Each structure stands twice: as structure tokens, then as C-alpha cells.
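Q: Hi! Curious about what YCII-related domain-containing protein looks like structurally. Here's the sequence.
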Amino acid sequence: MPIFAVHYTYTEATAADRATHRPEHRAFLNALVDAGTVLTSGPYPDGTGALLIFRAEDQPSLTALLAEDPFAKLGLIEAVRAVEWLPVMGAFSE
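A: Let's find out. The predicted structure is below.
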């Protein structure tokens, strides 16, 4: 199954709301970790965004899944860039 690198971009304007809704966002992602859909995720230390690594059937399936993220539903993500990724070495290579 393809692996995708997803980059979320955040703005300072949404920082307080993201802090408020972070538990729901992380619960959503933790369920996907348990299902094997999210391989890893985490924010950038400077607060500008996050990197999430997903397994998904295809881009449309991933797009639909990302739309279910509580941060997305609440408009707390400024931009999303999702690209198929081909790891050739390390933990995620096959």
C-alpha cells in the first residue's frame, strides 16, 4: 500500500484553537495509528505545522481521511500538502 507524506501548515492565528482541540486531533490520529494507517506524526517545534506519514490506498482515499481530522473540520489547518513517498531505507522502507 502506498505511503504518503502529509505536511500541515499552521498559522499563529489558530494556535489557541489548536491547543483547545488538540486532544480530539490526537485521538483521531491515535485511532489511525492503531489501525496501521498512520505510521508516525508530530508537530514542527517552531509551531508552523506538522508532518504525518500515512498508508492509504490512493490519493482520493487519503484526501477523504484528512478531511475527517478535527483540525481540518474546524478550519485550523492553513494548508495541506500530501505527496506519495517512496522510502528506500530505514524504518519505513520495504
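A: A fun detail: The longest helix spans residues 15-34.
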